[in-house]
Inverse folding.
């Protein structure tokens, strides 16, 4: 066989191998999607979500939106940990819930502590907003006072399909991002309950 034929054959084999790899990635897209959208700390999320009557997928979505599962994270505004709680909010939760011996270092570096405190807070917001989870997610980001004002004034009705009317751009995008991750997680991890 001539060199030219061997070169063409090699290129065809490489092209065929590349097509097979791309096909496998598309056929096995769940594998790729799970790699792109992982859920870490599943046991802690499941336990805390159960404690406060929340969906684990939703808690996971908030963690993804807030910190992308990175412990030790502090926002520019001073929010701490996986679920990015402000220290004053975390102190309030610890006092109201009766948690023992929780400090800012634990909130920053211990996933289980951040998930438990954040889930308690989300559950309290959900109760405060009559189990309107969309309004609760908005309140998690903008604060319950702002969301209550928007609802009372009629500038937003508390529904996901009208989330483009949320007055704060950051909160509008936050709510949309959390529900994007929530739906993605429900599709990819139906067994995670």
């Amino acid at each position: 066989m001539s060199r030219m034929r061997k070169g063409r054959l090699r290129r065809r084999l490489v092209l065929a191998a590349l097509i097979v790899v791309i096909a496998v990635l598309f056929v096995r897209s769940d594998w790729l999607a799970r790699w792109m959208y992982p859920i870490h700390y599943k046991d802690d999320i499941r336990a805390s979500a159960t404690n406060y009557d929340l969906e684990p997928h939703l808690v996971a979505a908030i963690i993804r939106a807030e910190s992308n599962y990175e412990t030790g994270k502090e926002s520019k505004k001073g929010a701490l940990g996986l679920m990015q709680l402000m220290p004053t909010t975390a102190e309030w939760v610890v006092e109201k819930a009766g948690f023992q011996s929780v400090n800012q270092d634990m909130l920053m570096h211990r996933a289980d502590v951040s998930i438990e405190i954040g889930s308690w807070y989300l559950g309290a917001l959900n109760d405060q907003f009559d189990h309107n989870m969309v309004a609760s997610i908005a309140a998690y980001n903008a604060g319950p006072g702002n969301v209550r004002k928007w609802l009372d004034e009629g500038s937003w009705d508390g529904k996901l399909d009208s989330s483009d009317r949320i007055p704060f751009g950051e909160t509008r995008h936050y709510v949309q991002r959390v529900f994007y991750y929530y739906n993605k997680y429900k599709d990819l991890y139906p067994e995670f309950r």
